[in-house]
């Protein structure tokens, strides 16, 4: 048992089952004017991910009737993962650009409970990206 193998200490192990890249809905372009059309971003993600692999494109967010807040997207993707893998205990982790995390400090942009959910409950990771202007 665990007690015998680990000297009385239980170990928690995290396992990444899948990675989902979720291109934001086109309606978000009202906030970010340079955003490329959803269909083009989705095609780029699908090409980058390939057909075989644990990272894939999710079309759920882009196929909604309107832009959906980040928290609702995470909850929907988490529910899909729970159904796909048959495990109600699966959790999601938000991996995003530093620009999204920086937006948490903009007054009135985020609800307080959504900021807590996006940064605490689901866990989060970010990376600052170099600014550049695409040629397309």
Oligomer: single chain
Percent of sequence in beta strands: 5-15%
Q: What's the Cα radius of gyration?
A: 18 Å
Widest sheet, order of strands: 1-2
Number of strands: 4
Uncertain residue ranges: 1-6
**Largest sheet entry:** 2 strands, parallel
Q: Helices and strands: which structural class?
A: alpha/beta
The percent range for helix content is 25-40%
Task: Summarize the structure in short.
The chain has 136 residues and is an alpha/beta fold. The protein has five helices and four strands, in the order αβαβαβααβ.
Describe the overall structure.
By secondary structure, this protein is an alpha/beta fold. It is built from five helices and four strands; from the N terminus they run αβαβαβααβ. The strands form two sheets. Strands 1-2 form a two-stranded parallel ribbon. Strands 3-4 form a two-stranded parallel ribbon.
């Amino acid at each position: 048992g665990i007690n015998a193998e680990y000297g009385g200490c239980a170990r928690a192990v995290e396992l990444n089952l899948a990675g989902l890249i979720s291109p934001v809905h086109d309606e978000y372009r009202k906030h970010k004017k340079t955003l490329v059309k959803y269909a083009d971003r989705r095609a780029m993600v699908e090409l980058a991910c390939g057909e075989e692999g644990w990272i894939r494109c999710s079309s759920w967010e882009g196929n909604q009737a309107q832009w959906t807040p980040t928290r609702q997207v995470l909850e929907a993707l988490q529910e899909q993962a729970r159904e796909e893998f048959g495990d109600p205990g699966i959790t999601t982790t938000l991996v995003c650009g530093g620009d999204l995390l920086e937006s948490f400090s903009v007054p009135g942009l985020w609800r307080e409970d959504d900021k807590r959910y996006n940064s605490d409950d689901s866990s989060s990771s970010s990376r600052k990206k170099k600014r550049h202007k695409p040629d397309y």
